[in-house]
């Protein structure tokens, strides 16, 4: 039997998929041109109008996706993906850790010139606030899955804020000092202190 409702539902789903694909392509186009302009003239020198002129994207389309250029940069961080987890043992206990430090340091190292451009002017505070919020959400959700976070308890939120605060603080020092150490070393050092509770790393202790 021919079902008109089924056809209408299929058409609606197909249309939704096409819209999502167009939106994704628009976001990628805007991000690509944002990165190019940032490398050419620095992040502070970029205006939304310049982005529109270089991409051909309509102003209404831009604001349908983003509030401002800082919101566009946040989309770039979100596109990196979600940090993976890893299993380790601390004092004989098995722990599932969110590998968020490797996620942040490695991605930054791959796009060091862009990161420097984004954090070289007054707009850095807006971008940093967005990035910090992304990290807080990721870490809080991981703690919740591991049974380490309760909404009505201060300890869980304090743990999230302390972890993210330490990570962002070290990361900012690294960026502002022009990446003096490799991302892998930064990750291992941070994890040794924050996840394993040991400092300094065992293999760096001098006899």
From TrEMBL:
One Pfam family recorded for the sequence: TetR_N
UniProt-annotated stretches for the region Disordered: 1-21
Classification via Gene3D superfamilies: Tetracycline Repressor, domain 2
Residue ranges occupied by any HTH tetR-type domain in the UniProt entry: 24-84
DNA-binding region: 47-66
InterPro entries assigned to the protein according to its UniProt record, in alphabetical order: Homeodomain-like_sf, HTH-type_Tx_Regulator, HTH_TetR, TetR_C_Firmicutes
Keywords for this protein: DNA-binding
Protein name per its UniProtKB record: DNA-binding transcriptional regulator, AcrR family
Lineage: Bacteria, Pseudomonadati, Pseudomonadota, Gammaproteobacteria, Pseudomonadales
